[in-house]
Structure formats: structure tokens, C-alpha cells
Design brief:
This protein is of the alpha+beta class. It contains 21 helices and 25 strands.
Length: 703
């Protein structure tokens, strides 16, 4: 008996040792799989322990961070981020620890470097290792920079229009400077904006004196400072800077970059950096318009300098108008007849720009637009209709865009519109239009930016949105696949056991039973095939491919894909009408309605399925458009938020739980298809999102 007991103990000890070795081997296999999977992605995959310290990271880590993974192993992930963003990172990781269903996301700055670098941090709890965190890091710096550049150009365009309006207004004839310094100072992000004029003393030496000034709140005024009056120009600037000003070029830098006698004066005024733009009247140096930055030493970009130089040129022209009464009258008459003042503003604008009447007749075209469309001389386009530059099939979208711009209102929402070049080639442009009063008559100014870079960025954002949706639905999709897979396998196992290794005759009852088993297995396989097809459609990135799409098939696929999000919250009701097919990209439509259905589900609390519903309604409206309503009985949307829900990066979800891109991407996709999307809601009584699309040509109705 004693020997038997020892033998049993040895067997148990050996079994435990083998189990430990197996666990170690399994961990090594998992690590290798993690590294191998991560090497296929541009994004960084990482794993953290319960204290937020780095355990594993994919090879992309070194490309993003600039240091090998082993140098960071064991360090807290939050140290990677800018000190001002670390509290947000800690909060996100705390949230992720308690969630294994939906990843939390946030855009943060990396620490170090002269220029800010942005990454999107996504994290979720690791269900396999309690207390651990899995996550990704994606470099979003190019997209942030592109968005900031686009916003800067639109902001400056609005300021340029306002400057032109004020310079031409009769009431500003006695105070040109103060009428424009405020809008220019604000758009330039300056602490001060001012004008100096040149004049000579009795000995003929060139002096400069300040004539006007605008200051941001809290910034000291210097107009009455004796140091700003009758200062020798050759002491205020270095020789090479004076040469730049005489050539009509801008000068910028820190106070120390300017004249040694002038630098202490500038520093005493709290200036960290400044920009000076020359004013030239009748071909002679007249003075300059300047901008101070008292907050930091940020330089003004090339685009900003070029746009502000256009404003300085407009001011120079206005000064020429006011030197003598005769010259003023002649120049003002020419200005109001040929729009020369406005043409001067747009002449140096880096993007293609046109000025046109409210009904689309072109009044002024800058060289960038002529070159963009393949014309030698902008005059070749004058008098033509703007819609004549647009493909016939896109003219309705362009017309609706132009109607959005109202006199004195903000810019119409940008639209992608294909324009036709002189040689017949089509270029994709992003149009932004402002409504203005030109010589007292309503007019429009339209900027056409090349859409290639932004389209690439949009494709990345759409793909990111798809991946985010897939990540959120991953558990549900796995469940949907697991159910049919389990009974396919069990049925096949049953057949394997029943038939045995040796062939034998089968009776009629056995044949019927086995036939039913095979039918069940085939049905399960078909369900899995449909799910895989839906995943393939959703992940397809062929943005240019459009075809006649069965809308109901798309909605059915969306309902199946989002079932795990809907099931604990509401009943799904399909109220389909008889509608024709629509001309669209199936994958993009899938993305639109999946976003809308998931949003509807998230507006409803879990646990009250009998009280709530999500209803999908399709119909044809009086204009022949196909309309899809996604209606929910959730919490609704407040009126002050409803008008902003389609804005990029606007979200009503908790920090880290939404990027604010979903509805913006839906809007972009639907508008590109020539359709429209709108929302209506009453707080506490749910919301309805309405998508209108055009029918495919000669499409057959689908019941």
C-alpha cells in the first residue's frame, strides 16, 4: 500500500511539472504569435500589466517611438505621452481595465520633439489575463496636420473677404488701418497687429512711426510708447531685412533677429516673435503692417505669410486710392467696375479661387484656378458659368452646394465635386463657398482644393471607422459564427460515429435521418458563408466601384452583424416597402447603416428589450428618391447638439468611448452618392436618421 501511495504521489508531481512546462510553452507560443501578427500591421499592438507597464509590443513600436521595445519593457505606458496628456491616458487605461467589450479611444500627443506628434490610443481589458490591457497606437499626425491646414486656409479666406469688404466700404475712408487690424490680428493668432509709416527727418534720414494698433485682451498697448515714434529704420532692421522689405518680401523672427538697438525695445514689450509685411504705394516703400506674438516664439507658416501678404497688398492699393482725390476717384471707379480689389486678394491665394454671381457667372479667376483647369490665361474662363466646369451628372450636387452659401454667412459645408479640365480630364476638387456682398451686390467666392490628399485621408478614416466597428462587434460576430459551427461539427461527428469505419448497407430510416443531419450541417455552413460574405463586403476598400445595390439585402446584413449590440437593448422591426435598387458601393452603404444602427442601439439602455425598439423603414418619396429611416426609442438628442452631430470629431459619448467620426463619415459617403442624410429628435422620445438615395437607372423594384 505504501509503495502504491508513493507511486501515485510521483505521478501527480510529474503531472504538475508537465502542466507547468506546458503553460510556459503556451506563453512562448502566444508571444511569438503576438509578434508575428503585429509585424503585419503598421499600427502598434501592445499589452500592459495591471499597473499599466509594458509587457509586449509589436515591431511597429520602434518605428513610432524611436526606441526598441526592450528599452520600454516594464515602464509605464503613460510616460510615452506629453506631460499635459498623461492624466487623460491614465483615465483611459483605468476605463479599459473594466471593459472587455468596447475599446476606449483617445488622441494624445507623444512627448519630446520640436513639433507635436499625435497618436490614437485604443485600449481594452484582456479577458485572458485578468487585470491586463490590450491596445493599439496609431500615428494620426498627418491627418491632424492636414485638418489644421484646411481649417487655417478657410479661416484666412473668411478674414480676407472681411478685409476686402471693409476696405471698399465708404465709412472706412478716413480710418483704413483700424478697420482691418482686428480681423487680421485675430485670424493670425497675434497678440498685436499694427501699422508703421515711413517718413524722413530734416536731414533726410528714413524714420518709422506707429499709426494704428490692435491688441488682444490682456496685452499692453504700445501706440503711445515714445519708442514707437520716429525710430530710425536702419536701427530697427538689419541690412538684409531692409533689402527683403524693399523687394516686397516678408520678414519674421525673434526680437534678437532684428536690429541690435531695437531688440531690447521689442523684448520690453513682451514680444516672442514678430512678422513684418511691407506696404508699397505707387512703387515706393510706404511702411509696414506687423504682427506680434507675446505667448510663444511660434513662426507664421508659408501659407499664412502668403495670405497676410495679400491683405497687405490690398491695404497698399487702398492707400494709393487715398493719396489724392483724383487718384482715389479714378481707382475706386476701376475697382468697382473690375473687382480689382478682390482680385488682388485672391491673386496670391495658393488654392484655386473664383468669384462668381449668385447664379454662377464667373467674375474673377485667379491664376491657380486657371492652371488647375489647364488654361493659360484666367481671362479664358471669365463670363463662363461655374456649373459648366462640372460634369453633367454632378451638376445637381454642385448647385445644392452653391445654394448653401448665404450673403454674409459662414462657408457652405465643403463638397467633393469633379471638375472638367480643358483637355477633358476630370479632377476631384473639394469646394468651399462663401457668400459675400460685392459692390453692394450679393456674390460668391469659391475655393477648389485638390481632393487627392484629403481623399486618401478620408479613405484611412473610413477604414479606421470600419476597423473600430469590427472591433466593437468582434465578440458578437464570433458568437454568430460559433453557433452554426458547433452544430455543423456535432452533426458531422454524429455521422462519423454512425457510419463507422467499415461500409455497410443502410436502411430507409437511416438514410432519411442522415439526410436530415446533412441538411442541418449545410444550413449551418450557409449561415457561416453569409457572415463571412458580410465581413468581406464590409471590409472591401474599392471606393470607386459602384453598382445597383439591393438595399434590403444590405439592411438584413447589418441587422445580422449588429445583432449582439441590439439584442440586449431592443426589438428590431423591419418595415420594408417596395423600393428599387440604388446606385452605390455596397460596402460603403453597409458602413453607413451599421453606424446608424449601432448608434441607435447605444442610445437605449440594456435590460429593457420589451420597452424599446429599433425600426428600419424603407419607402419611395414623392420625388422618386429611396428613403431609409433608422428610428429608435432611446434617449434622444438635445436641440443644441442636433445641429452639430455631423461635424467631424463631435461626439456626445463619454471621453475615450467615441471618436466623433461615425456620423461625419456617414454624411461624407451619402453626399458623395448624391444623396442626403438628416436627423430629427425629441429628448426622451428617441431619434430618427433619414437617408435619401437615388435609384439605379432602370432598376427593378425589390419587395
Amino acid at each position: 500500500m505504501k509503495e502504491a501511495a508513493v507511486s501515485q504521489e510521483q505521478r501527480e508531481t510529474g503531472s504538475a511539472a508537465a502542466s507547468g512546462q506546458s503553460a510556459v510553452a503556451s506563453d512562448l507560443v502566444d508571444t511569438r504569435r503576438f509578434q508575428r501578427a503585429g509585424s503585419l500591421l503598421r499600427e502598434v499592438l501592445f499589452e500592459l500589466d495591471v499597473a499599466g507597464r509594458l509587457i509586449l509590443a509589436s515591431p511597429a513600436w520602434e518605428r513610432l517611438v524611436g526606441a526598441p521595445v526592450h528599452a520600454w519593457t516594464g515602464r509605464a505606458l503613460v510616460e510615452l505621452f506629453h506631460p499635459e496628456d498623461r492624466d487623460q491616458a491614465r483615465a483611459l487605461l483605468r476605463t479599459a481595465l473594466s471593459r472587455t467589450d468596447v475599446p476606449t479611444r483617445l488622441e494624445l500627443r507623444l512627448s519630446g520633439g520640436t513639433q507635436p506628434r499625435w497618436v490614437e490610443l485604443s485600449a481594452t481589458g484582456d479577458p485572458e489575463h485578468l487585470g491586463g490591457v490590450l491596445g493599439t497606437l496609431v500615428d494620426v499626425t498627418p491627418r491632424r496636420l492636414a485638418e489644421e491646414a484646411a481649417a487655417t486656409r478657410e479661416r484666412y479666406l473668411g478674414a480676407m473677404v472681411e478685409v476686402q469688404r471693409r476696405l471698399l466700404a465708404p465709412e472706412t475712408s478716413g480710418d483704413l488701418y483700424n478697420s482691418i487690424l482686428e480681423p487680421l490680428g485675430r485670424v493670425a493668432g497675434a497678440s498685436r497687429a499694427y501699422v508703421f509709416e515711413f517718413h524722413r527727418d530734416a536731414s533726410g534720414r528714413m524714420l518709422q512711426s506707429q499709426r494704428a494698433e490692435w491688441c488682444a485682451p490682456g496685452v499692453s498697448r504700445e501706440l503711445d510708447n515714445p519708442d514707437t515714434q520716429a525710430w530710425p529704420v536702419d536701427q530697427a532692421f538689419e541690412l538684409h531685412q531692409l533689402e527683403q522689405l524693399h523687394r516686397g518680401e516678408a520678414v519674421q523672427g525673434s526680437p534678437e533677429d532684428f536690429g541690435s538697438d531695437n531688440a531690447p525695445v521689442l523684448l520690453a514689450q513682451g514680444i516672442r516673435s514678430l512678422l513684418v509685411l511691407p506696404l508699397v504705394v505707387h512703387g515706393e516703400p510706404f511702411g509696414f503692417i506687423g504682427f506680434d506674438n507675446c505667448d510663444d516664439a511660434r513662426p507664421w507658416s508659408h501659407v499664412e505669410v502668403k495670405l497676410l501678404s495679400g491683405a497687405a497688398g490690398a491695404l497698399s492699393l487702398a492707400l494709393e486710392q487715398h493719396t489724392t482725390d483724383a487718384l482715389r476717384v479714378r481707382t475706386e471707379t476701376a475697382l468697382r467696375r473690375t473687382e480689382a480689389g478682390f482680385h488682388l486678394l485672391i491673386e496670391g491665394f495658393p488654392d484655386p479661387v473664383v468669384v462668381h454671381t449668385t447664379d454662377g457667372m464667373l467674375l474673377s479667376v485667379n491664376p491657380a484656378m486657371a492652371n488647375y483647369l489647364g488654361y493659360q490665361d484666367p481671362a479664358e474662363l471669365l463670363g463662363r458659368h461655374l456649373l459648366g466646369l462640372v460634369r453633367r451628372e454632378d451638376q445637381e450636387v454642385a448647385r445644392r452646394h452653391l445654394e448653401e452659401a448665404q450673403d454674409g454667412a459662414l462657408a457652405a459645408r465643403s463638397h467633393e465635386v469633379p471638375l472638367v479640365r480643358r483637355d477633358g480630364q476630370v479632377v476631384s476638387a473639394d469646394l468651399v463657398t462663401l457668400g459675400v456682398l460685392f459692390d453692394g451686390v450679393p456674390a460668391r467666392v469659391t475655393v477648389a482644393r485638390d481632393f487627392t490628399e484629403r481623399k486618401h485621408m478620408q479613405a484611412q478614416l473610413m477604414l479606421g471607422d470600419r476597423l473600430a466597428s469590427m472591433g466593437m462587434l468582434a465578440a458578437g460576430i464570433a458568437h454568430e459564427l460559433n453557433n452554426p459551427l458547433s452544430y455543423v461539427l456535432s452533426n458531422l461527428e454524429f455521422l462519423h460515429r454512425a457510419l463507422g469505419p467499415m461500409p455497410r448497407p443502410l436502411g430507409a430510416e437511416e438514410l432519411l435521418e442522415y439526410q436530415q443531419v446533412l441538411d442541418d450541417a449545410r444550413e449551418g455552413s450557409e449561415r457561416m458563408r453569409q457572415i463571412v460574405r458580410q465581413l468581406k463586403v464590409f471590409s472591401r476598400v474599392d471606393d470607386a466601384h459602384e453598382e445597383a445595390v439591393d438595399l434590403h439585402r444590405v439592411l438584413d446584413s447589418v441587422a445580422q452583424m449588429a445583432a449582439s449590440e441590439i439584442r440586449p437593448r431592443a426589438r428590431l422591426v423591419k418595415q420594408y416597402g417596395s423600393v428599387p435598387t440604388v446606385r452605390a458601393n455596397e460596402g460603403k452603404l453597409f458602413q453607413v447603416f451599421l453606424n446608424l444602427v449601432i448608434n441607435a442601439a447605444h442610445a437605449i439602455p440594456e435590460g429593457f428589450t420589451d420597452e424599446h425598439e429599433i425600426r428600419l423603414i424603407t419607402r419611395v418619396d414623392d420625388d422618386g428618391r429611396i428613403v431609409v429611416d433608422v428610428r429608435d426609442t432611446g434617449r434622444g438628442i438635445a436641440p443644441e447638439l442636433l445641429r452639430r452631430i455631423f461635424d467631424p470629431f463631435f461626439t456626445t459619448k463619454a471621453p475615450g468611448q467615441g471618436t466623433g467620426l461615425g456620423l461625419s463619415i456617414c454624411d461624407t459617403i451619402v453626399r458623395a452618392l448624391g444623396g442626403s442624410i438628416a436627423a430629427e429628435s425629441t429628448p426622451g422620445h428617441g431619434a430618427t436618421f433619414r437617408v435619401s438615395l437615388h435609384a439605379a437607372v432602370r432598376a427593378a423594384p425589390v419587395a
